[in-house]
Amino acid sequence: MIHRLQFRAMGTEMLVCVDNGSGQPPPELTDVPGWFEEWEQTLSRFRIDSELTRLNRAGGQPVPVSDVLWQVFQSAVLAEKATDGLVTPTVAGAVLEAGYDRDFKLLVGQILDPSGQEPSPVRSLDSVIWDESDHSICLPEGVQLDFGGIAKGWAADQAVQRLVHHGSALMNCGGDIAMSGPLMDGNPWEVGIHKPFDRSVGYIGRMYFTKACGVATSATDRRRWMQGNLLRHHIIDPGTGVPAESDLVSATVVATNAVEAEAAAKSVLIRGSLEGIAWLEPNPNLACLAILEDGQVVYSERIREYL
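Predicted structure:
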């Protein structure tokens, strides 16, 4: 039997599922929201007392960080390398300049004043110094970190690792999904793909999974706002320092885990449909379904095995 728990964390809706072959849910299921509260207190840029906020305010000084922040930082390092720099946590300043300086629900319906700053390319993690021996990170002046989707993907992977000994587990962190394998009876987990802009109409497609993997969707249809007369969203192109200009509105990627899926999905979205799919295809661990602004759907070759 599949036991479910829904809650809100990290600014989005969460769903955790465990199939343990029993009519009684595992006691640990009710602990999951507490895990996310601890992780959010460490990783949130919106909390003034979070560990990440304290690190961002210590520009120029090395700061020893917790195991959680260190793990997520290292995941971000790998993501930047894997995406040729397109996915990096150093976009924090650019996100703020684009107007995303508060919880998104406070942006809805607002027209923000232009920042007045000339955009410039985002500095990469090459500008950051870190020390493996004491897990310290030193941010140069003017550089702040925003882990964003990488933190959600990491949390999804962590939750599944903690729950897998109870049976088959799935963790959905607002579209970043980790799965431990098939259901107890061997049937697949089913994941729906929402229609952009109007999610009330249901799914435009469904995917089916019988192996441990991660799935992530990067999209610009939900988190959009006006800054002056410019339409903004939260996906920054580090090469320009402003929200990415792309013919895609969403990209859903399957990978070996949720962190890899999250990074690849954002990379495809920023690159656009032609370059994005061409970048992804040579990697045998990745598969993608992408949706263009005009509603057309683009498929990579390997995604068809999940449809």
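Summary: The chain has one domain: 2-306.
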